[in-house]
Amino acid sequence: MQARHTLRPMANASTPVSVPTALGTMPAHLWLPPAGRGPGIVLFQEIFGISAYIEKRAADLAQAGYVVLAPEFYWRLGESGVADGPDMLEQGVNLMQRFDWEAGVRDGLAAAGWLREHSAVTGRVGYVGFCFGGGLAFAVAAHSDPDALVSYYGSALPNLLDLAPQVTAPSLHHFGDEDAYIDRETVERIRAAVAGEQTEFFTYPEADHAFDNPDFVNHHPEASVIAWGLTVKFLAKHLPV
Asked: Which parts of the sequence belong to the Dienelactone hydrolase domain (predicted)?
């Protein structure tokens, strides 16, 4: 039986929670929508961990009516994220290289199960992931049954395409045309692998990797606004509030 938590129904404030896993307790953050109840979203962090940007996107989703859970996927490394500064990318790459991917997928499954059972969640649960989290969300979706998946420039996707037949949820994918980490040929390979009646796929001219993050040098304001609008529309269709 899941413990109940005393939570304030404020979309801009999170509550620390703990998600049981087979090998320990994973720290996470929970945002409630203004109504206090709604569909659930597991938010999969970018390479930088639970950053101010991830917290802002979680609050945006909560404001749109969702119960949002953001697990600290680097918890096994003793970290929640990297410190802001000129070496933040180096820090993030270091954490990602030390990350146990299979354990991370299991943690994602545990987070999804925890959220589905939460008293504030009214039925459906989806996944939203950015960068590192875009690939991790895809991998978790291949081993579970989310009601929707949104992946922003999933950096691990080129190595996960054998899982594509197992991802049966409606999915939305965003990529920049000028992504320095995932070239256009690879993006088209991803597009072909995930294609289906319930798949939406968008690319953005002049946008680089991590174009949605306003705290990173690659931020592309126009692409960010358009992609977020499409994300909200997609979620409203498949995870109606």
From this structure: 28-238
pTM over 0.85: yes
**Cα(218)–Cα(97) distance, integer angstroms:** 22
Nearest CA to 139 among 115, 152, 156, 114?
156
Q: How do the domains of the chain map onto residue ranges?
A: 14-238
* Amino acid at site 143: H
Whole-Å CA distances, 117 to 63, 84, 102, 125, 224: 21, 35, 23, 10, 32
In this structure, whether the domain defined by 14-238 belongs to CATH 3.40.50.1820 is answered with yes
**Strand order from edge to edge, sheet including 199-204:** 14-21, 24-31, 67-71, 38-44, 121-130, 148-152, 171-176, 199-204
Amino acid at 195: A
- Between CA 29 and CA 226 the distance in angstroms is 27
Asked whether the beta carbons of 155 and 178 are under 8 A apart, the reply is no
| Close Cβ partners of 92 (under 8 Å, ≥ 6 residues apart) | 46, 47, 48, 49, 82, 132
Determine the residue type at 186.
Answer: T
Instruction: Specify the higher pLDDT residue, 81 or 237.
Output: 237
Cβ atoms within 10 Å of 15's Cβ, excluding its own: 14
What's the pLDDT at 129?
A: 98
Q: Is 3 strand, coil or helix?
A: coil
Q: Residue 162: what pLDDT?
A: 98
| Residue 61, φ and ψ in degrees, nearest 5 | -65, -40
DSSP state of 46: B
